[in-house]
Amino acid sequence: MYALDFSFLHQNHLDTAAAFCIEDHYYSYQLLKKRVNALARELINMGMRKQKIGILIEDHLDTYAAFLACWITGNAYIPIHSSYPENRIQDIEEQADIALYFGIKDNIHFHTDKEYKNTTEFEDCLDSLPMYRHGDEDIMYVLFTSGSTGKPKGVQISYQNLSSFMFHVDQMNLGLGEGNGFLQMFELSFDLSVVSYLYPLQVGGIVYTVSPKQVKYLEIYRLMETYSLDFAIIVPSVLALLSPYFEDIELKSAKVIALSGEAVPLELTQKFQICCPNAQFYNFYGPTECTIYCTAYQIPRTDIASQNGIVSIGYPTQSLEAHLCDDEGNKVQDKGILHLSGAQVSPGYCGNNLQQNQLFYKKNEHQSYNTGDLVSTDSSGLLYYLGRKDQQIKIQGYRIELMEVEHLCKKALDRDAAVIASKDKNGYDIMVLFTRKADSIPQYDDLKVLLPSYMIPSLFLRVDQFPLNENGKLDRKTLKLNYENGDYAN
Questions:
Q1: What is the pLDDT of residue 150?
Q2: Which string of DSSP letters, residue by residue, matches 297-355?
Q3: Of 293, 276, 275, which Cα lies nearest the Cα of 284?
Q4: In this structure, are 362 and 462 located in the same domain?
Q5: Are both 447 and 308 inside the same structural domain?
Q6: pLDDT tens digits, one per residue of 50-107
Q7: Mean pLDDT score of the chain, rounded to an integer?
Q8: 53-85 b/e with 16+ CB inside 10 Å = b?
Q9: Considering all CA atoms of the chain, what is the largest pairwise distance in Å, rounded to the nearest integer?
Q10: Which of 35, 288, 381, 388 is the most buried (most CB within 10 A)?
């Protein structure tokens, strides 16, 4: 089996080379090694092994060093954004049984009985520390995504999952290596961040992070142009914000551009290809439960495979099999719900999650997962994403459960509310929050107490009353239709 390669922490010839560029400041592989060893030594001294470590994420070298320190000591990391509401962090801590928190600040903004350590207080360490030898079932990280019950779901990714994925990346032979520049635009609680830092480090590249202090789409362009970056994975809706400037953009140094995180529009892709004349383009698709991405399509310059204006998601990676099924799980031929089986499929969610048995199952002794995505296929086996079968949507790459957003909006506002998904003028997913006109106008500050910023709806509208169906339940279809027909004003 392919083994994850952490040899970059031992290769002396890389010591003076840059590993990261954070806010235009370079950090060497030697310094990265010192910081990883410093944190790893602390975990070893505390007797931490096969524990889950909460990492309060920042755009800082120690955050990445903490991830790597967890891995080389046989622990798993859980990235937690400092802006998360306290109740969400408490949910995560309880479900994952977090043993310890690492962060770069002197204190934390939430209550916990677990120990918290400021990593910047650990002295650099160049000692040669023993690396833990992972078993296939060892958990490497846990990412919490939106859940339909009002609680986030903790997706566990094992050593087998991650090593199988990285084997696929290795087999793509992208022709990138030491000294090449790689963009890392993702918040570290989003799974595309993992390949955006781990792959570059494995090949001796430089990771250029997008500062959260800047306007993301403008910072992406600045970094790619200023540093002549070779590789970038970009979310299409973020790229769309850059599209008004395409005529003035020419990124000749770009070698590999991957679009991922949500449906990839054909027209946007074709326009950006002109901006990157020497780049090979890809579409990467995959739910968190199947380890970062699980299908890939190498996008040609002409005759791009697409349906309904959306670029094909391609073929499954080597460690996965794809099946199209009906609502009962029976195989269908041309269009159905995408089910995936194989070594990249997560062992499941943390804790006693009610959706575990609904979505994960065994097929011919392989772990399998029902993605809930409606997909079609053509005679060549290419797959095409058609949309969600249920009420999940993606906004700038974040997968969001509408029922959770609605539940938390009601709780935050202490009144009835409804949330629907629609599209903005560019065709991207947005959420619209409805309350009754008899109630006061919702405020953003009221919602941010319980919801992360990316889960707060884009529009707040008030209606005389919610439409109901014949069973007396909220008629979401009518609510959405009325909104899209322009029947509701801001």
A1: 63
A2: EEE-SSS--EETTEE--BEE-TTEEEEEE-TTS-B-SSEEEEEEEETTS--EESSS-TT
A3: 293
A4: no
A5: no
A6: 999 999 999 999 999 999 999 999 999 999 988 888 999 999 999 999 999 999 999 9
A7: 92
A8: bbbbbbbbbbbbbbbbbbbbbbbbbbbbbeebb
A9: 71
A10: 35
Domain limits for position 234: 7-377
Residue found under tokens 């969610």? 349
Q: When comparing pLDDT for 395 and 323, which is higher?
A: 323
* Structure tokens that stand for 406 in this block: 């609605």
- Classify residue 288 by its DSSP letter: G
Pull the structure tokens for residue 98: 């977090």
Domain C-terminal end among 316, 345, 377: 377
Q: What is the pLDDT of residue 473?
A: 64
- Chain centroid to CA 115: 27
Give the per-residue pLDDT at 2: 78
Give yes or no: residues 422 and 372 share one domain: no
Stretch (H or E) spanning 388: strand 383-388
Burial 95-121 (b: 16+ CB within 10 A, else e): bbebbbbbbbeeebebeeeeebbbbee
CB neighbourhood size of 449 (10 A): 12
Copy the structure tokens of residue 469: 């169906």
Please, is 243 exposed, middle or buried when counting C-beta atoms within 10 Å of its C-beta (0-12, 13-18, 19+)?
middle
Tell me how far apart the alpha carbons of residues 337 and 370 are, in angstroms, rounded to a whole number. Answer: 7
Given a contact cutoff of 8 angstroms between Cβ atoms, the answer to whether 91 and 80 are in contact is: no
Secondary structure of residue 114 in the 3-state scheme: coil
Alpha-carbon gap, residue 368 to 387, rounded angstroms: 20
The answer as to whether 419 is a domain residue is yes
Structural element, H or E, at residue 462: strand 459-463
Give kind and range of the element (H or E) at residue 95: helix 86-96
Kindly state the tokens that stand for 118: 């400021």
Nearest to 417 by CA among 407, 429, 425: 407
Question: Domain holding 421: CATH number?
Answer: 3.30.300.30
**Residue after which a domain boundary falls, among 377, 408, 440:** 377
| Predicted local distance difference test score (pLDDT) of residue 314 | 98
What values do phi and psi take at 432, rounded to 5? Answer: -120, 125
